[in-house]
Fold this protein.
Amino acid sequence: MPALQTVWFLLIGLLLVGYAVLDGFDLGAGIVHLFVARDDSERRSVINAIGPVWDGNEVWLITGGGALFAAFPLVYATVFSSFYLAVMLLLAALILRAVSIEFRSKEANRLWRLAWDVGFTLGSALAALLFGVALGNVVRGLPLDAGGVYRGGLVGLLNPFAIVMGLLTLGLAAQQGSAWLVLKTQGALQARARQAGVAATFVVIAAWVAATVIGWYDSNRLFGNFGRSPLAWTGPVVAAIALTSMLYAYRRRQELRAFALSSLAIVALAYTAGATLYPNLVPAAEASRSLTVDNAHSSDTTLTVMLVVALVGMPIVLAYTAFIYWRFKGKVQLDEASY
Amino acid sequence: MDVVQLSRIQFAVTISFHFIFPSITIGLAGLIAIVETLRWRTKRDVYDRLSVFLTKLFAVTFVIGVVSGIVMEFQFGTNWSVFSGYVGDIFGAPLAAEGIFAFFLESAFVGVVLFGRSRVGSTVRWIAGLLVFLGTTISAFWILVANSWMQTPAGFKIVTDANGASRAQLTDFWQAVFNPSTLPRLFHTLAACWVVGAFFLMGISAWYILRHRDSDVTAIAMRLAVIVAFFGSGLMFVSGDLQTREVQANQPLKFAAMEGVFTTSQGVALEIMALPPSQTGPAGFPSLAVPYGLSAMSDLDPNGEIKGLDQEPDESLWPPVAMTFMSFHLMVGLGALMLLLMLFGAYYEWRRSLDSHTRWLRFAVLAIPLPIIAVELGWMTAEVGRQPWIVQGLMLTSQGVSPGVSATDVGVSLMGILFVYALLFFLWIYALTKEIGRGPEAAVAEVVPAGPAPAEVASESAGEPKAGQTGRGR
């Protein structure tokens, strides 16, 4: 049986992947919102396509953050304080996204609605981009000092690898959001969402290739696990297959399959990032200062208690989440209760 | 200003802003659960309309609570990384448990309550309402567990890790969860949230009556709000007394600062109204006090001994006395004012004459923010009174701050937060007033009748004439 800390490495990965897949389509719907939805009723359709669920989806991030705090406190502390201004920007972006959804339909005024439409797209895009920039910096490794503190500021986070990773997550979210909209809408809006989804996938592929090339020259540590274990290769292989099959599914108008494959691509790429990291959580430029599953975890007591909490709680969460998605399945229909 | 001060100001701003919203939604969720239960059982249309109206007020408040809550969760890591590393083994678990047991529940089922009227049947909608209430309450529980552990840490030991840094390690989960202050603080806080929700609904209903826009819905809303506000206001004193006794036992310096007792003595008076004391002694100005009152209350003996701040000779470990004293006393004062309002309110409601007491109705409208302010003051008492500790007796606030974050960083983020929160507050008030302006009748007119439950629709319309009779016939 794997050590508790490795189980928690996987569980936190699972929570964050849950966030990426679920809120990924909310963020993505926001990213493509301005471009695929042209008139007011189309824009309301986009917002109502995520209306009943986006709030619950965001909880995956909150729970992932809490679980990281509980299982790997030093990682939580180091990552959040190192990315200080980036985290503040991320919070601003998430707030902008949320209030844009909530307040857009409170007034009929065209300018009012346009302002919130722009806010919805900007907030969603900035959040998706920042997640990738942060992930890129973590994967690449941080220049931690002897006390384990990062002092590079916001500028230090803007390196080519991290930026390309930001574009990768931006593209992935847009792809996921488009796939969701194809599933939930009809007519001209659906057709444009399909086009946006295909375009986003090409961004994803380009950014993925670029990240691999830059990563190759940037760091000799990055691909170590791929030389050691064939297991690491399942990530990129599955992701590549999922992305190509998704494009094929779009051609054959298989909406649900396209969405499922887009989700699978996110899972596989997240797995790839995890495989690159393990056993590190926050690799440091100087390897001895790295935070790993072995030196940054909580006590076995805490990890055991948390495991019980997760094993009792998460199946219930998954059950009622599935119930709610099932209840709200089908194409969006605007009624007076809608946004 | 240095990074510690700025981070403390930022934390104070973000927590006081955030707490406005959950205190309302926890209370409102309770009221919604009651109304939904009545709707489900009686099938009467009036409860349906009230429930929809309450849910709309809940939704707009909930969303601000959610977004400002994420800021709170992230801020431990961004601004207090040393604290986070030190307490993470214990402190992170309740936050994660809140997410898994509570936050998923409320966020998921808010969607059902809000959008599900045409998608789910009567029973599912009722259960969804109950689950939202359950979620908000469990949420409060875990957050209070985390904060109470900072007040009265238990179930842990201090260990030194490989890098030579010391940290708190969990030894007994249940001891940490039910540390000495958890339950008294939970009781007091939940009661406070119910009062906040009830005053909120009471003020809105009073406004409708004053504007002659009252209906069968506002009549029921008013009755419900008055009952909950009346018993809630009373409970505040019961639970407040329990909590104060807990503080006296476990955080005696906080207690001494709250009551403004500097020197340990017998037969201590209970200060009712006074100017703020300084850090070194009481304000040199006559105050309104009950002789022997504090000794009598605390020890049940007018000559009982009360330990003053001087029990701790190191004055640098005293909390800021004036702030602790004033926030506590203002909170109790507001509580008394609210109880007074509710004594009249309950009497008028019992006599069925509330509608004609215009002055009381005006006070009820003005009183909407009072319990929220009292809640804020209560938290200020709890948090300022714990200073200079971030975890009582274990870690100083000044030791917990993030070493890699500069004062400029925090200055920039604080400015941004002040700007964004001012905007959020404005938007919230705007959306609330708009929803209240439209009224409960409009809130329902726009909702399509429940499709999947034709039987319910039939019985609802059958119940309508009866619903009208409960109006006050003005």
Q: What stands out?
A: Residues 3-42 of chain B form the longest helix (40 residues). Confidence is low (pLDDT under 50) at residues 446-474 of chain B. Chain B touches chain A through 75 residues (CB under 8 Å). Residues 1-181+398-474 of chain B form one domain.
